[in-house]
Amino acid sequence: MVDLRNRDFLKLLDFTPKEINHLVKVAMTLKKQKRNNESHRYLKGKQVALIFEKDSTRTRCAFEVGAKDLGMNVTYLGPTGSQLGKKETIADTARVLAKMYDGIEYRGFEQARVEALAKYADVPVWNGLTNEFHPTQMLADIMTVKEEFGKLKGIKLVFLGDARNNVGNSLMVVSAKMGMHFVCCAPKELFPDKELIKECEEIASKTGATLTFESDPMKATKDADVLYTDVWVSMGEPMEIFEKRIKLLKKYQVNKKILDNASKNVIFLHCLPSFHNIDTSIGKEIYEKFGIKEMEVTDEVFESSHSRVFEEAENRLHTIKAVMLETMKP
Ligand code: CP
Ligand code: NVA
Predict the structure, then answer these.
(1) Is 261 near ligand 1, meaning CB less than 6 Å away?
(2) Are residues 296 and 148 in the same domain?
């Protein structure tokens, strides 16, 4: 029996493989219910607060729609407009919000901030992305892999790009927990933090997972089942860093050559948003400055029949609902 009532959801290191599997299973049921138009207002009348110190499309919408599907009411607190951070500490905000809400989502900067929020709020707190981790994203990602291959164990997932960001770190953790073959494909200076690698290696030794660190993209992606990438510059990092990252990560772009080197049934995943063309203001600015039209993934791969990025984005909704439901249910 898995019981996650009143638990915080801050990082996957805090959860067992059984608990993670359980959340994905609940998400799959919720997905069916939503598809069949079956009412699932299991948390009717409850209140959730969503704190976003950084921008968001998927995470915010998944929490809002998910909460409403479950019968709840939502308050959105954006990067401006509340007292948080300017006149009021995380600890004080946590204690105030916990008096009014039954659950709190937080997206922001240091992991320490969401951990502090959870320490002071006596209601479940969910991490909607920090500099270090993006745990709700991982549930959607492994759900998408499971839907595609029917299993997680033994799946070779290669992450190419800035592997010490929130998504790279979290993929290493979830792969270690779920017995997958994780390949971190990046220049050495962008490998994850050594301490985190050590922690994941210990987990992997118990689950049968393997962790490989490889700077040669052709070696790394050979026979991959899943190719995964993320933006080269994350939210909160300065625009000036683009030049250095483009130089460092150009050869890690997921393109046709990489796709052809992977397994013939390979799927392409990306947490999104993605720079695969110049139809955005930043994409255009980068093109004007550096002359590149595509960054971490080519438009060809992004739009190919191997791409599951929109299925993955949809699964954000179902998995986030599962997290709210399992931690909040009476
Ligand atoms: N993948 C993801 O977290 O997207 P948003 O930044 O749009 O929430
Ligand atoms: N690494 C990216 C993920 C966005 C969902 C960022 O932090 O901006």
Answers:
(1) no
(2) yes
Same structural domain, 297 and 151: yes
- For position 287, what pLDDT does the model report? 97
- Residue of 271, 276, 306, 318 with catalytic role: 271
Report which DSSP code applies to 250. G
- The SS3 call for residue 307 is strand
185 counts as catalytic:
no
pTM above 0.85, yes or no: yes
CA of 129 relative to ligand 1 center, distance in Å: 8
* Cβ-contact 70, 27 below 8 angstroms: no
Q: Which residues of the chain have pLDDT under 50?
A: none
d(CA 152, CA 145): 7
- How is 30-99 classified by DSSP, letter by letter? HHHHHHTT----TTTT-EEEEEESS--SHHHHHHHHHHHHTT-EEEEE-SSSSSBTTTB-HHHHHHHHHH
CATH number for the domain that contains residue 87: 3.40.50.1370
Give yes or no: 230 in active site.
yes
User: Token pair of 4, please?
Assistant: 């996650």
